[in-house]
Design goal:
ARM-type_fold; ARMC2; about 775 residues; mainly alpha; 39 helices; Armadillo; Armadillo repeat-containing protein 2
Amino acid sequence: MSSLERKREKHRPFTLNPDPRRKTSAEIVTEARHSLRTLRTQRPFTPRDDHRQLFGEISRAQDGRPPSTFSLYARNFEAPDSRPGSGTRLSPLEHKPRLPVAQDEDPDPVSPTAHPKPPSDPLELKRGARARLFRAGSLTTLPPVSRPTEELGTELGNGDRPASQEAEDESVVWNVKIFPLLQELESIAAGGSEDAVERLCDACDCLHGALAEQGMLGRRCRKRAGLLRALFCLIDLNSAQLNLQLAKLTLELNVSGKNLLNICKLIFKISRSESNDILFQNNSIIDSLLCVLRCEDVCVSAEAVLYCVGTLKFLSGNSALLRLLLAKDCVGVATLLIQKLHPLSQPDHTQFTTGGHIHVQLTATLRNLADLPESRPLFVSHGTLTELCLVLRHYHGDQDICTNIARVFSKLSSYSECCLVLAQTPGCYTLFIELLSKHQWKQDLVVRLLFTLGNLTSRSSEARKHLFTAEGCMSVLLGLYHTYHGRWDPPPAHTPRTPPARDTCNPRTPFLGWRESKDVLVKLVRVLANMSIHPAVGPTLAANADLIHYLLDTLELRSMQESEELLVNVAATINNLSFYQEDSSVVRDRGLTVAKLLLKLLLSSSMDGMLEATRVFGNLSQSREVCDFIIQNKVHQFVVTLLDSKSPEVCFSACGVLTNLALNPPSRTTLTQEGAHTKLADCLRDFGPVDWQLAGLVCQTLWNLTEEGGTETGPPSTMNNQEREALLEVLTLYLNEEDALQWTSGDDMRDFHRLCWELEFLPVAKRLMDRIQTKTD
């Protein structure tokens, strides 16, 4: 390089033009700071479901869906389905023992006439009513059992004990421990005392403990049939507290078929009333419900599973019970159930619809569990997010399921560990785009899917590329922009509100208010802004005429008073897109139009709006046309005033604009007259020790401002002696490493600040100091 070229290089003005040769990481950090940024927004509000019902009133087809309200009485239950097998073949008996049928064999299904009708007031615990409950099929049909006299075979049962010995031992246990408790139950029920329910619950607890102690739970008790019949009779007392005790004991006796269904419906009925929530806190019935979900075959007991999960959904609306469910690994059980439901999720399966009903309850429960911070590691470790994506694929047409899962994703994707798992789920981006296309009028679903995509693209460069390359991505996103922007008509002040937009082709589509439409646009623009950060995506978006048209149309038609967040997001998106200065850029071609529309943000009372507009001007001011607009409309005066801000970000953005303006000699003189030198020196003094990137940019701006040359009609852009001395004092202080880094604490931060000081500040500060000293001399 010749001496003349070296001299020109030494005195070359600084510009903020994007340089394809990014030599240092610090340059990339600096450019990203004032050019390309991700956006944040609030998570969509999830309304509380105050009505404890299986399904919403209009959410699903009424035909064929299970009811939320029903009545249950003892007569609705059947005798147990089969006698438990002992695992041992017994020799034929010469004669049968003299015991009631209910003791050793399962009788025929109980006739409806075997039990009286319930009293007209079920809550009335009168002595006579209780007595009538036990006349037919009462506990007295289970007398103490004497030792059997017949020989039972010589084959061995469990262990090395003969089956006859087991039967004899069980008879003794029955007579000594179980039968007296059954008599006590009958006596309490027939007595009609005021504390009958409490005493019955205590007796049931004792019965449960005795059966558990003797290993007679499950199907191992030979008198299980009569025992269940006796317990079913107590249901007609219609006590929620007692019925939960009975349900817990009944489930541990491994009922199946209709009895399992009715027990699950009984628990579900109790859980519909919030006043009964306390009963579930003081009872281990939740463990029994989770056991049903873990162990039952959903193809055989689908309806029972449905009411079981419906109960958990209701209980998860209570904050105390929600934490209890989480502690009992409800997330893990729910994930296992989703896996068991996959065979039912095939459209040609006979129980596809029932599987969908279950998924509605299950995903609603997970939606509530996702509110707890402690649930996040469980959603990750159990692979729940991936399983939910499979459910979305199977039930992509079910708005209830899709909305519940979208709510789960919108909650969890706000956290890095969950966001990473979801971002790495194969095909999730294509799936989300398909759902947005299919349910474009379902505002609460659309806004949550967009919020989730915004979270994914805010954290991962790969997510930005994967989303952009997903089939139909831009077509669907621009279609949503057209739908929600075109249908949004905020009501004028003091005038009756006109009916909001609605999809006339779909009568089930809810009306769209302008607030709902605005919320969708906020989330949608955020996705576009985040995608544009990717270097392979940004130039394509900047060249998309339809996208730029929608963004500029939004800036023109919306006001800061009604749509501050939306306009700030639009400005941030334009800022990201204006970073790309390719010839194909529509933003570059329409830079002057953008500048005019951004004035209302720059001059607004919103600090966020002002900051975003300043950032855009920092990129657009690379155009001579835009620079002239800034000077002509006195925007430069406002930008210089921003240097007085106490915010480093605001000062950084203002310096970006001034650096470009100072490249033009007439503008340089104008800025000098506005006192830009003094304000920049103050910025350097105030922010240098804590932000060396900003300090370096201030020095770049001062370098351009002190460039030789004025105008034919004005004085040269020079500083007076007082300004030079003040600036030299600051530069001398900060060019000394020990003095410059004395305010930094902590080894890690000191290393970072030293790196920024060496790369961002030191080179340009030395050049600036040499220039000022030369002019002083």
